[in-house]
């Protein structure tokens, strides 16, 4: 959406500049070209917007992780249930040390459900994991 607003703004400015040079045909061609670029952008990113929405639905909260576990360890653990799109392990802002929890984004809802059923309360690195669907991020305004 930001791209659309930005490019529309540029199109209007370009149209005004070209009109002041009294070349109306170039102004109209320029404006139509920018509008077509915006339409193509919206069409091609529409699927990506849906993917972002689905991505939220396929995010797991993973708690009680061993502090020594890194992103690759967690990814390897979850890959047996489907493709892992990303792993984010939370760190303390001051010390940079891991906080023992993180988030895993799975490729499919089936993989997410399998991971929950198999890994919740399972042992990993001498700790009992807590695995569930991630909640929406809280807004602390």
TrEMBL record:
Residues annotated as transmembrane: 5-22, 28-45
Pfam families: RRM_1
Entries under InterPro entries matching the protein: Nucleotide-bd_a/b_plait_sf (IPR012677), RBD_domain_sf (IPR035979), RRM_dom (IPR000504)
Domain RRM: 58-136
GO molecular function: RNA binding
Keywords: Membrane, Transmembrane, Transmembrane helix
Protein name per its UniProtKB record: RNA-binding protein
């Amino acid at each position: 959406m930001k791209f659309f607003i930005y490019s529309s703004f540029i199109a209007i400015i370009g149209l005004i500049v070209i009109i002041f040079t009294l070349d109306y045909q170039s102004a109209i061609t320029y404006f139509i070209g920018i509008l077509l670029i915006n339409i193509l952008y919206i069409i091609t990113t529409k699927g990506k917007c849906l993917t972002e929405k689905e991505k939220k639905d396929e995010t797991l909260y993973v708690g009680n992780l061993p502090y020594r576990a890194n992103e690759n360890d967690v990814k390897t653990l979850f890959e047996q249930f489907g493709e892992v799109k990303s792993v984010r392990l939370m760190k303390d802002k001051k010390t940079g040390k891991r906080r023992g929890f993180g988030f895993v984004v799975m490729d499919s809802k089936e993989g997410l459900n399998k991971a929950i059923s198999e890994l919740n309360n399972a042992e990993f690195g001498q700790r009992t994991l807590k695995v569930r669907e991630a909640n929406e991020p809280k807004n602390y305004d």
